[in-house]
Description:
By secondary structure, the protein is of the alpha/beta class. It has one domain (3-363): Histone deacetylase domain (Arginase, Chain A, 3-Layer(aba) Sandwich), CATH 3.40.800. It has helices at residues 39-51, 67-70, 76-87, 103-123, 153-165, 181-186, 234-252, 278-295, 313-325, 348-358, and strands spanning 4-6, 58-60, 91-92, 94-95, 98-99, 129-131, 145-146, 170-174, 193-200, 223-228, 256-261, 300-304. Helix 6 links the parallel strand 8 (170-174) and strand 9. The longest helix is centred in the N-terminal third of the chain and has 21 residues, at 103-123. The mean pLDDT is 97.
Amino acid sequence: MATGLVWHERTMWHDTGSGAAELPSGGWIEPHAHFENPATKRRLKNLLDATGLTEQLTVLRPRPATVEEICRVHERAYVERVAVLSAGHGGDMGDEAIVGNGSYEIALLAAGGVIRAVDATLDGVVENAYALVRPPGHHALSDRGMGFCLFGNVAVAVRHAQVERGVGRVAVVDWDVHHGNGTQAAFWDDPSVLAISLHQDGCYPQGSGAREERGSGRGEGATLNVPLPAGSGRGAYLAALDQVVVPALERFRPELIVIACGLDAGGFDPLGRMQLSAAAFGEMTARLLDAAARLCGGRLVAAHEGGYSADHVPFCGLAVIEALSGLDAGVDDPFAYVDGQGGQELQPHQRDAVEAAARLVEGVPA
Ligand code: ZN
């Protein structure tokens, strides 16, 4: 059985306009490219194609998510506002959640893409799957967009798995460099979803993602935040996987694991200050594959989130997909030198952060 790859060219047509970095152009900002543009994701797909890997994967064509599926996570009035804005000239649905003309249909396709990946994995059509979709989703809240995200793709797919497919416990492991605040909010008081986020401490949203944020009510302990200091590399991330994430998964015993696979903790990302290499992303994926094999019959789905280095992201994504599939594209990573840079090994202040997070594992619902 092959690894599934969800891809639809139309998701690359989501138009975030002519900003500079994440800011709108205007004033003294000369129009340039918005960070969340198609290049990173399209270049990953191109690399998969050029190396011949795509042919060895099972390419899955997504369908749009239905409004009912989206409304398991979002308020209907918000969904309708996105549709109205998208039918016109677009605008901003919240904090840097840009809607272009047609973005509504594309955002439905992105959420539907993660649903497709989940369904194919649950059906055993594929062994596991990678949903290469945009716009990303993990910042979106029930009633507003945030951080380039319109609909919570992963949260919508998790609810689909539970409501339509009879899956009980689901774990989300979000290693996007930014806090997965939207996913956290969607499952805040829900003990059936373990929402783990590894992120750069205090990056985005600022003031969000502290270890003290652990869920509430019956969901207390099922939110697990692992903020890591800026500058963290392979050593810190693998320590966090080994000492926090995998033990938490073992305690929670999910029936499905979904990776919110942001690649912006890579060492060249303009929106993060971490220094992961492609190989490190591959090692992290291998850790979760192993956990999924032991805990939930290998049921593992990765959904693309952020990642803004058009040069580096393709290699990081390739490493994740190689790990998922067990295939070797035969590519010498031209950016592997980041692994030789100082500070890749676990540093004392990073170890303190990992150990503090590890103490939260005993609070995860068993
Ligand atoms: Zn991000």
